[in-house]
Amino acid sequence: PIAQVPIQVCTAKEKRNKEVNTFNNVFSNNPLHN
């Protein structure tokens, strides 16, 4: 169980980063905010 914790944390970080990247892409592609 202890060995699995870092993997879960990394996965959560990657998911978070992916969500942030998606948001940034949508936000930067929105003409109202350029």
Order of helices and strands: H
- Radius of gyration of CA atoms, rounded to a whole number: 15 Å
Measured between the Cα atoms of the first and last residue, the distance is 47 Å
How does the overall form come out from the CA principal axes? rod-shaped
Tell me the strand percentage band: under 5%
The portion of residues assigned to helices is: over 70%
Structural class: mainly alpha
Number of strands: 0
Can you give the mean pLDDT? 79
| Biggest sheet architecture | none
Spans of at least 5 consecutive residues with low confidence = none
What is the overall number of helices?
1
Number of separate structural domains: 1
Oligomer: single chain
Task: Please give the structural blueprint.
Blueprint: H1 4-29
Q: Can you offer a commentary on this structure?
A:
The mean pLDDT is 79. The protein has one domain. It has one helix spanning 4-29. It has 34 residues and is an all-alpha fold. It has one helix and no strands. It is 76% helix and 0% strand. The protein is rod-shaped and about 45 Å long.
Could you name the key traits of this structure?
single chain, about 35 residues, mainly alpha, 1 helix, about 75% helix, about 0% strand
